[in-house]
C-alpha cells in the first residue's frame, strides 16, 4: 500500500505521513503542491492520492480534474479543512472517492482516513 499525500502545509504533511506509516502501516510519499503531485504520478505508482483542497496555484479539485483528464485511474480522497458542502459536492462530481474534513481530534481523523484508504483500495482491487 502506497499513498501520495498532497498539501501545501509541510507540518501537516509530516504529521500525516507519521500517523499513516506508524499507526496504520500505510507507506506515504509527500508533495507540497498539485504540480509536484502530477509529476510524482507520472514517475511512480500509488494506490491512492490524498489531497488538501486549499492550495496555491491549483486547488485539490483542479488536481483531481487534471488527474482524471490525463486518464490516470487512481482513487482520490479530498482531505481538507474547508468544510463547505459545495466543495464536497464538486469533489464527488469530479470523481473523488471520498471527502474527509480535517477537524477535531487528529487521532480520530487519521483513523478515519486510514479506514477509508484501506476500504477504497480493497474495493478497487482489480479496477
Can you put this structure into words, describing what you see?
With 127 residues, the chain is an alpha/beta fold. The chain has a single domain, classed as Rossmann fold, CATH 3.40.50.2300. Helices cover 49% and strands 18% of the residues. Residues 2-117 form the Response regulatory domain. InterPro entries: Bact_response_regulator, CheY-like_superfamily, Sig_transdc_resp-reg_receiver. This is Response regulator. Keywords: Phosphoprotein.
List the helices and strands and how they pair.
Elements: E1 2-6, H1 10-24, E2 27-31, H2 34-43, E3 48-51, H3 60-69, E4 76-80, H4 85-93, E5 98-101, H5 106-123
Parallel strand pairs: 1-2, 1-3, 3-4, 4-5
Helix pairs in contact: 1-5, 2-3
Tell me the CATH superfamily.
Response regulator
- Looking at how many chains there are and whether they match, the oligomeric state comes to single chain
Q: Which whole number gives the mean pLDDT?
A: 91
The global form is globular
Classified by CATH, the class is Alpha Beta
Structure annotation, total helices? 5
CATH topology: Rossmann fold
**H/E element sequence:** EHEHEHEHEH
What portion of residues is helical? 40-55%
Radius of gyration: 13 Å
Q: Could you describe the largest sheet, including whether it forms a barrel? A: 5 strands, parallel
Secondary-structure-derived class: alpha/beta
- Low-confidence stretches are none
Give, in spatial order, the strands making up the sheet with the most strands.
2-1-3-4-5
- Intertermini distance: 15 Å
Protein name: Response regulator
Pfam families: Response_reg
Organism: Methanosarcina baikalica
Keywords: Phosphoprotein
